Amino acid sequence: MLIGEIQTPVSNLYGAGKTTIEQLNRLGIATVGDLLRFWPRAWEDRSRYNTLSEWNAFHKLNVPVTIMDQQWFGYGRMKTLKLVISDSEGVRGELACFNRPFLEKAFPEGTKALVYGSFSVKYGAIQSSSFDIEKYDTAERRILPVYPLTQGLTQTKLRKLIEQALNSYARGIDSELPADVLNKYGYPDKRAVLFAMHRPASLEEAEAARTALIFEEFFLYEAAVGMRALERRGVLPRTPVRDNASEGTAQPAALQYAYTPLQKELLSRLPFTLTADQQAVTAEINADIDGTAPAARLIQGDVGSGKTLVAFLACVKVIEGGGQAALMAPTELLARQHADTAAKLLEPLGIRLAFLTGSLKAAGRSQLLQQLAAGNIDLIIGTHALFSAQTLYKNLRMVVIDEQHRFGVLQRSAIIQKGIDSGKKAPHFLMMSATPIPRTLALSMFGDLDISVIKTMPPGRKPVITYVASESKAEKVYYFIGQDILAGKQAYFVYPIIEDSDTFNLKSAEDMFAELTRDFPHHRLALIHSKVPEEEARTIMQEFRSGAIHILVATSVIEVGVDVPNATCMVIEHADRFGLSALHQLRGRIGRGSDQSYCFLLYGKNITETGMARLKVMANTTDGFVIAEEDLKLRGPGDIGGVEQSGYCGFELADPIRDFALLEKARIAAFEMLAAQRGLYQQEATNTANTDQ
Ligand code: ADP
Ligand code: MG
């Protein structure tokens, strides 16, 4: 039986009452299977022993002690037990047992015990009131799992439940991966992994188990990638990924592929011509659409490289052929912007547009959905509402996903299904990504897709000039910006948090909006973040675009897609709090016109070394691919992602950037298995018959 197949409810466990069940549910745990897959976030190493005199040297001590005396202090219901203890060196200490009177019976004078807790010196005694205590002889397990918790649920309680689940259910568990794969690559089976995660004999064993789980996640992912590739083209992508496509001129020679009449009309209305890469990619997509298999293409283009237009051109071709197209964006803000652009560029061509987001009210929505199902809408632009159950298409032939890294992979198949449901054929599928994934990583993650790269920027762009400065220079920076605005330009001010919080001692967008409003009395400012209602956000963006608002104070909501060429300045405060890719995306909001743009990255006093290294990377280059490679280098092993999740695919433990080596290994293993299953073993199909490009 696989873990996921254990459907026994947690209520079957001893000690899981109503409250506990509710707490577990909050953690997403309903069945014993869920519980067994609830992985520790860390392990406490209690394998080494301390002495009490080390109270000041470690955050927590693990001390074998003897109970010397039991005393009580306080009165009545406040009466509290105190255990006097002595360690191996004869040093004495005290344990204040608040709310634990039962320890009196369990630990009588003379008992040998193991105490784990934080100690401090109070009233001249080394003492602890926050500790675990176990009988010494039964305390043989020394590495303890530490789980994420929820209000009211204790570590001890959760450990006990998982322990129980392990004892009663784990023995019969099968591995998701075939045994010969595990053997060949030297990974333990799932049963061993379970025990090593929840009850490791050593930290090494725990880490090895976690590596095995990450390998498993990647293996299953790559097996799916391989299967999709086999279905689409009958061959597996190459393994290991070799990045031998010539950089810079990555496009095949499809350049001369003809535009359709409607595409030509669109192009003739533009005030500029397409860049070479835009032309090449459009040609590739046109060829895809005319080909036999539906297009499935990842279009990587750095911020500002003009992907929107390429997407529109693709939609135009499909619409010309009588199909419908859907363009999905990750935020309402961006979807709205695309809808506005489409209204300008596509409506004059006679294309019937619609805009659909989650916040569209009932009446308007049902009318829109009817029109869509009747085929009276050619292009629909919106958020994930485009693919909700109620949204039905007459003949969906093209799906474009903008900023695809913002969506999980799993949604992809649901979307393809929409197309199949409507047109009886899988729709063409384009994914636009501005997160410059290093090519090797892209090939591993999206190996079933064709990949196009838009490298050339529209002409006349000047690279953004970036300054890195301490926050003590903020006044000077504000002054500089003030000058630029007087010259008719606009600016963004970006902050890591919306409102003040006690947890982070950071400037917030709300606070700084108030402060900047005082600092810039002659300019118009607006505040935008994820909590601003849609209507208001739309008005603000329209006014910013029209130039009526000069300064936009924001959080990273503006990170994706916002396109206002007249905005030439950006200040990012606490810039070290943002990951490299976020900084790159944010900075991509400026430098979109022909005027020189400036970006100021301000940092606080306690900036870390890697924080500073990141900012330097930003100052040194505007090339998203270089930044992505640097990101890969800076994120050393052990960096669990933190605030900045890689988020490419919604993995649970795995991080494709941090764990890239494992990803490659899993890809090889998964493709070997697929090849063997298809009897392609001898042919080395994975290496020779490659059509990945
Ligand atoms: P991104 O790739 O980041 O999505 P956009 O599609 O938002 O970029 O385009 C950025 C800006 O560049 C837009 O204002 C767009 O009108 C403009 N643009 C796109 N293609 C060209 C081109 N070939 N020449 C000049 N400007 C262009
Ligand atoms: Mg874009």
Count helical runs.
22
Largest sheet: number of strands, sense, barrel closure = 7 strands, parallel
* Small molecules held by this entry: adenosine-5'-diphosphate, magnesium ion
Helix-strand category:
alpha/beta
Poorly predicted runs are: 243-254, 637-648, 681-686, 688-693
**Proportion of strand residues:** 15-25%
Radius of gyration, CA atoms, in whole angstroms = 30 Å
Question: Cα distance, first to last residue?
Answer: 40 Å
Dominant shape: globular
Overall number of strands: 20
Helix amount: 25-40%
Overall average residue pLDDT: 85
Side-by-side strand order of the widest sheet = 10-11-9-12-13-8-14
Question: Please, could you describe this protein's structure?
Answer:
The chain is α/β, with parallel strands linked by helices and about 700 residues long. It has 22 helices and 20 strands. It has a 7-stranded parallel sheet, sandwiched between helices. A 6-stranded parallel sheet has the order 15-20-19-16-18-17, with helices on both faces. It has a 5-stranded mixed β-barrel with strand order 2-3-4-6-5. Strand 5 and strand 6 (about 125-135) form a beta hairpin. The two termini are about 40 Å apart. Mean pLDDT is about 85; it is low at about 245-255, about 635-650, about 680-685 and about 690-693. Magnesium ion binds near residues 307, 308, 402, 434 and 561.
